[in-house]
Design goal:
The complex is a heterodimer of chains A (about 90) and B (about 425). With about 90 residues, chain A is mainly α. Helix content of chain A is about 45%, strand content about 5%. Classes of the chains: A mainly alpha (about 90), B alpha/beta (about 425).
Chain lengths: ~90, ~425
């Protein structure tokens, strides 16, 4: 599962975020400092992971210091299977 | 427990909480004489920034809010460049002892204090803009009076409250109308949706990018309630997509010097900016065929501002934006507005982004050029041929290039000026495939 998540992150970056510095991609790469992913790019990445790779970040997950590296992001992702409450 | 003044994510903050947050600083250091303070503030904790701002505003202090992502050295430089006497930098107010900034003495501070801001710098170097709190209060009164549709709604502010849009129109206007703003700092899209669900009659303040992303993961059965747009008008296809997914789509327009100056609570087409707010008078062209620079006069101070935006009033007195004056392309004496060209190409299947810009031409003066990003490789000749059905001959780009990516400024905006200066092949060379 761990490997899948990393592969999904890499694929989403490759396909949708050409501004990211993909050559530095490893599990321990820092999203901002190493891969040049800013907050809006991170948001885009999360949306692509949700729509195309079946993962999401549960709503209680905070995007804070605990989310610094690719490994952190992979750890926070969960498989996309729960139902949405309606507005 | 007293009623919440505002929320930051899930945490409510009452007036008592705010008083507790600022208590250590009352009557100490530079705060002994707040009216003579010129403070730069860069705090990670948004609630602490808001508590400080709401405390200092009525005391007549001057404040430069700095986005929390800014490194210390950069914050210090900003503080110096804007003539601040002190910098407060840290996670929260508790660990941000005011450090003295070695800046040249600043003269000419308005009595009653100022909010100091830096303009976005889309067209050049950012410049310092100081607005008196009195001026901002006039804007707030006008904004609330004009935007009556907001009255029953809960503002959800998912944009920085260190900038005018989030701070003045999102937070301060909410407090002015007696509402409790919900400030969202956690940018997890699911978290933002949960905040919107918990306030079903919401008024969302966010960047167009964020709104577009939220709508992509919003289940098809759901809609957003009311959404405010600001900044550069969206393209027609994106705007229509948003209109389908929210009950009310609003758009506001303004500049750093004057704040919000026009607003519509129903955007029906991309450039529609609505009617002027009562604290300003606006001059612009008289029709789409005869647009002119949008000129702002602030009624209270008599200050005149040329926005360098090209616009016009329609027969119903609604202001329309056409282009930045600098971005308008003059083809042999005929004005071409980049947005009009871009909207046509964006309606072509597979084209995701399109930016029209100008290039000097010895015959025509200027020529329209276009760069686009698409899902697959497109035949340029075929595309050009197709576009002739929708564009006048002078609007059809002389050069059309398909590119991997369109470079953007740090604030997410496209600089057509930079595109005009750098040919695509040099940009492509900088971005490894």
């Amino acid at each position: 599962m761990r490997v899948n998540r990393h592969a999904a992150i890499k694929a989403a970056l490759q396909q949708h975020l050409p501004n990211a510095r993909l050559s530095a991609f490893t599990g321990s790469a820092r999203l901002n400092a190493d891969l040049a992913i800013d907050s809006i790019m991170l948001l885009q990445l999360i949306v692509h992971l949700e729509l195309e790779h079946g993962f999401n970040l549960p709503e209680e997950t905070l995007l804070t210091q605990e989310l610094e590296t690719v490994d952190d992001l992979a750890r926070l992702l969960v498989a996309n299977d729960h139902k949405e409450p309606s507005l | 427990m007293t009623a919440p003044l505002f929320y930051v994510d899930n945490t409510p903050y009452s007036q008592d909480d705010c008083d507790r947050i600022v208590a250590p600083w009352v009557n100490s250091g530079p705060f002994q004489n707040p009216a003579s303070c010129r403070l730069a503030v860069c705090l990670q904790d948004t609630a602490h920034w808001l508590a400080l701002c709401l405390w200092l505003k009525p005391l007549g202090a001057s404040v430069l809010p700095i986005h929390p992502g800014t490194p210390r050295q950069a914050a210090l430089t900003l503080a110096k460049d804007t003539g601040c006497s002190h910098l407060l930098f840290g996670d929260s107010l508790r660990d941000a002892a005011p450090e003295t900034v070695d800046a040249p003495a600043h003269s000419g501070q308005a009595t009653g204090g100022e909010l100091i801001q830096l303009s976005s710098g889309t067209t050049g170097k950012p410049k310092t803009i100081a607005r008196s709190w009195r001026d901002i209060d006039r804007e707030l009164t006008a904004y609330v009076e004009h935007f009556t549709e907001a009255q029953p709604l809960t503002p959800v502010v998912a944009c920085p409250v260190t900038h005018s849009y989030g701070l003045i129109c999102g937070v301060l206007a909410a407090l002015e109308r007696g509402a409790t703003p919900h400030v969202v700092t956690n940018l997890n899209p699911r978290f933002i949706l949960s905040q919107l669900r918990s306030a079903p009659e919401h008024l969302l303040y966010a960047s167009p990018t964020l709104v577009s992303l939220l709508i992509r993961i919003l289940p098809p059965s759901e809609t957003l309630h009311t959404v405010m747009l600001s900044g550069a008008p969206l393209s027609a296809p994106v705007l229509n997509q948003l209109r389908d997914r929210c009950q009310r789509l609003c758009q506001q327009y303004g500049c750093s010097e004057a704040g919000c100056v026009a607003l519509t609570a129903n955007v029906t087409e991309p450039g529609l900016l609505g009617t002027p707010l009562p604290h300003v008078s606006l001059d612009a062209g008289t029709s789409a065929e005869q647009p002119d620079d949008v000129l702002i006069t602030i009624k209270g101070s008599g200050q005149h501002i040329n926005t360098r935006d090209l616009g016009y009033f329609d027969a119903h007195g609604q202001l329309h934006f056409l282009a930045r004056t600098d971005d308008t392309i003059n083809v042999a004496g005929i004005n071409v507005y980049p947005g009009a060209v871009e909207d046509v190409y964006l309606s072509y299947p597979g084209i995701r982004e399109a930016v029209a810009y100008k290039q000097a031409d010895s015959f025509a003066g200027e020529r329209v050029c276009l760069r686009f990003v698409a899902d697959s490789e497109l035949d340029i000749d075929q595309l050009k041929q197709w576009s002739r059905e929708y564009l006048s001959p002078h609007q059809v780009p002389a050069v059309i290039e398909q590119v991997e990516t369109i470079p953007r400024l740090p604030n997410g905006k496209v600089s057509r000026r930079l595109l005009s200066e750098a040919p695509a092949h040099t940009l492509a060379a900088e971005v490894p495939a």
